[in-house]
Amino acid sequence: MSHWRDAVSGREVVVLDAESTRDWPRAPAWQGAKFCALLLAERLVDPEPLLDRALGQGLVFASAWGPGCELVEDSFDEVIARQAEMETPDLAILTSSHPEESIEETLEFFLEAVTPSRAHVAACTTWVVFPVGATCRARVEAALERRAARRLP
Questions:
Q1: Least buried of 12, 35, 78, 140, by fewest C-beta within 10 Å?
Q2: Domain range for residue 17?
Q3: What is the DSSP string of 27-47?
Q4: Is 136 exposed, middle or buried (0-12, 13-18, 19+ CB in 10 A)?
Q5: Does residue 95 fall inside a structural domain?
Q6: How many domains is the chain partitioned into structurally?
Q7: Checking phi first, is residue 111 left (phi over 0); if not, alpha (psi -120 to 50) or beta?
Q8: 3-state SS of 100-115?
């Protein structure tokens, strides 16, 4: 895992280490009650192992990139709909997928444009990037460096 401060958006970014979606942490490895997450995978992945766990940890925006990312977004939407009680626009958990964008474009969107729904904004302090596979992780960290993000201790 690595911690970053994005120079463009000013956001705190946590990049997790993962070989599969089963590697989502059992407990958050970051501070803050709410977070946004970006799942990046260069191959088809099963999002089920992380869905309930991430939502239970305070996920308020889920984004996906890679083969089948639309299906990953649909899976998040299904779980969110099952768990949502009295969801309003201010309390909604939002999702997006990026089948046509590069990792760099998707990361730029995630760090600069993603904003949780109104009721979650104040408590959302961390943007979690979950690249599946070492190659994907290296691409993410290289993209962060090109954005002049600073690695934190």
A1: 78
A2: 2-87+101-152
A3: S-SSSSSEEEEEEEESS----
A4: buried
A5: no
A6: 1
A7: alpha
A8: CCCHHHHHHHHHHCCC
Confidence band of 19 (pLDDT split at 50, 70, 90)? very high
Q: What share of the chain is helix, strand, coil (3-state, %, to 5)?
A: 35, 25, 40
CA angle 32/37/145 to nearest 5° reads 95
Pairing of strands 2-5, 150-152: antiparallel
pLDDT tens, position by position, 41-67:
999 999 999 999 999 999 999 999 999
Q: Looking at residue 107, which CATH number applies to its domain? A: 3.90.190
Give the tokens for residue 51: 């869905």
Segment 125-137, tens digit of pLDDT: 999 999 999 999 9
